[in-house]
Design a protein that fits this description.
With 283 residues, this protein is an alpha/beta fold. It has helices spanning 10-21, 34-44, 52-57, 68-77, 103-106, 143-152, 165-175, 177-192, 197-218, 220-223, 233-241, 245-265, 272-282, and strands spanning 2-6, 25-30, 47-48, 61-64, 87-90, 109-116, 133-138, 156-159.
Length: 283
């Protein structure tokens, strides 16, 4: 399978470099900004295409690695007749392959393929990309082919239905982007206590890394500690009294999720006092 990319940003470069390093035939890149395509092609030792039709002609599968709000525009601009027999793939977590309309008319196969992975840099994120979990949604005729392709690259995969894509993507945001937001809140709280920016980051690094490792190895339930888990209502009350209204809203929202986990971990423990405290402050 020879793969081409429309879009030369972080996701396109990461997929392309990882593919090349694992023996996949990558044709190259087309991008609205030619300089970006040239950079991606140089980085992956592939070709830069000035005409998107040349890229399509030289590829068996085309990854559209652009922002979510540009996928429809890019797809609409393509000559659908030239897609016959090819796989056309976007990498959005929230959108399904239904954006690729008239597949039966033009004889191509549409997919959404999303890596559960924080792709935060164009030129370095590929280094640990084997840790990405690949979620596949799309044409039933070619699903097994796509799944085998990624499995042969040493990557774990799962197939998902189109109707679950948005909910699925929300799950990945909980595990990634929202963690970044909560860490920023934690650093800001330490800074308000007199820590410098650098000290706040250093102070939280150890607990964050150790907890992440524990969650990954044992699961969130067995990794759970803290005042909610031990049913320490008074400490939670004191926390909340020290917070601003905005901070309290974040604290209570996150704490309700922790409470649900604690109730699962200890079904015989009475957490009703904590539940009432958190819910009353949310109202």
């Amino acid at each position: 399978m020879r793969i081409g990319f429309i879009g030369a940003g972080r996701v396109g470069c990461t997929f392309g470099k990882y593919f090349k390093e694992h023996g996949v035939d990558v044709s190259g890149y087309y991008n609205r900004t030619a300089e970006r395509a040239k950079e991606a092609a140089e980085f992956t030792d592939t070709l830069y295409y000035e005409d998107v039709n040349d890229l399509i002609k030289e590829s068996d599968a085309i990854f559209i690695t652009v922002s979510d709000n540009s996928i429809q525009t890019v797809f609409s601009s393509l000559d659908k007749k030239k897609l016959k027999g090819r796989l056309i793939i976007h990498t959005s977590g929230a959108m399904s392959s239904s954006v690729f309309t008239e597949q039966d008319v033009y004889g191509f196969y549409g997919f959404s393929i999303h890596p559960i992975y924080a792709v935060n840099d164009r030129f370095t994120s590929y280094k640990n990309f084997q840790n990405a979990f690949i979620t596949i949604e799309g044409s039933s005729e070619k699903t097994e082919l796509v799944r085998e392709f990624f499995s042969e690259l040493g990557m774990k995969t799962a197939v998902i239905g189109a109707d679950n894509k948005t909910r699925y993507h929300a799950a990945t945001v909980f595990a990634s982007n929202m963690v970044c937001g909560l860490m920023n809140e934690a650093e800001d709280l330490l800074i308000s206590c007199g820590f410098s920016d650098k000290e706040a980051g250093e102070a939280l690094k150890g607990i964050f890394l150790d907890n992440a490792k524990s969650v990954a190895e044992k699961g969130p339930m067995d990794a759970l500690t803290g005042p909610i888990e031990r049913n320490d209502t008074e400490t939670i009350r004191k926390h909340m009294s020290s917070l601003s209204p905005e901070e309290k809203e974040i604290y209570t929202g996150a704490s309700l999720a922790v409470l649900r986990l604690a109730e699962k971990k200890y079904p015989d423990r009475d957490y009703s006092e904590i539940a009432e405290l958190l819910k009353s402050r949310k109202e």
